[in-house]
Amino acid sequence: MSSSSIATPGAETSPDAGGAFSFRVSEDPIDVPAEQATLGDPGAGGYVAFEGWVRETNEGRRVVRLAYEAYPMLANREGRRIIEEARQRFGLKSASCIHRTGLLEIGGLAVWVGVSAAHRGEAFAACRYIIDEVKHRVPVWKQEFYEDGDSGWVNCERCAAAAGPSHGNATSTAANASHGHTHAHSHGHAHDHAHDHDHDHGHGHGHAQPAAVTDAPVPSRLPDYARQMALPEVGAAGQAKLGAAKVLVIGCGGLGVPVATYLAGAGIGSLTLVDPDVLEATNLHRQIAYAAADCGQAKVLLLAARLRALNPSIGLHTHAEAADAALLDALVPRHDVVVDCTDRLSVKFAVNDAAVRHGIPAVLASVHQYEGQVQVVRPGGSCLRCVWPQAPRDGVVGNCAEAGVLGPVPGLVGTWQAFEVLRLLLGLEAPREGVLTVDLLAGQTRFLRAPRAADCPEHALKHSVAPGAPLELPSLAEGLARGLCVVDVRDATEAAANPLPVAHHHLPMATLLKDLKQLPATENGWLFVCVRGIRSRSVAEACREAGHAAAYSLSGGAPH
Question: What pLDDT, on the 0 to 100 scale, is given for residue 270?
């Protein structure tokens, strides 16, 4: 596929296919003779064109004019897919479709489709296929202006559904560009000529009977944004903003699932998902995008597939890896908003610091049992370190696996995060600086004001996590081979339930972090062990920050 000139943004042709194949939305009037000239082919025996005009009435109301809006990148991409499908399905020589945008007067040409094929049957069938698919799949919005008001912005797919089944007739793609004209010219060996005209007052039904296509898949559908576009603060301009936006979502669990799902449904142009984990059965009660049969697969790929099914028009990028400082510094500047949906404090602070460094808004959240918190970090405003200058260690506050959680709690908090992202992108009323807290048991919300700290930039720079030597070792055996002193940082109950099979010291994390001088004497260093490897990693980080380079964590926690 090669890109077209600037004069026709988004249109593409396929020279390898042997003819001209293109789709575009355009504010310029359609030059029908020029478009017809692009479809000429000496091997074509049939040429069919369709025109959709703006009519003066709709459902008994007099129409003064129409307006069409589309986000060109999304519309042109889906339109090109349809043209390519028609080429492969019907063996076309050439095919082209143009959909107008902007303000159109009565009688104006709103949509034009032209195809050429070896025989007229394929040409008729392909023209009808393109018309129907464009109507149902291409995100084009219409606003009708009546003598007594207007319709508001409506997705043309809704009008297609309201028109009912087409009963085998060619159908206009423009929802109320009603005078559907189908022109057919066949140049077969019999030199027969067909010139069909139909002037209906519905949705452009012509009388061109297409050849039967029995293996056609069910056409894909795109979300109808009419309900959110009906909001004065959104409209077509706001929808275009969402379609142009790029959002980075860190974490595909209890928070990430509702965040990504609502953003995809809203029509965000591009989503980047980051998560290193695979799905476990314990995730299913709150991470409702997944199924039991998905266990063992990478969450980031599962969620991307779910979002692609929900909204095929959005761009999706996945990173099945942990969000360390290097990855964040590479990804954050490329996005308009970053959303932290993780359950690790170290990652939350790393996301906060990267957002502050690069001047990108961030929406942070956390969940603990029946409570949740949401904070919006805007460039130049209050950030996470303005509230907690020093990041607490992972494991000090229990995550969902350790403290427990009911499924709706992260669902509600993640939904709130999605709203804050949309508010940022649409430029709605700016959120206050501080932290929103939600207590579901008490049925209460509170807002804790937190103005920007004077030394916030220094915090961000000072505490930025730099990539360093690996903190984790894969097994106890490797630690023993290095001569490391094994230290169990679990609490007494956890340690008694699953004793370590090697000689070790027992120092609970809370006790050890109060005074690192309690570390057992050793010449070679320490290997810290906990239940899942989270608390032990935090202890190892604390030791390294204190100058003890030979501090390691056992990856995955104590063996069973």
Answer: 92
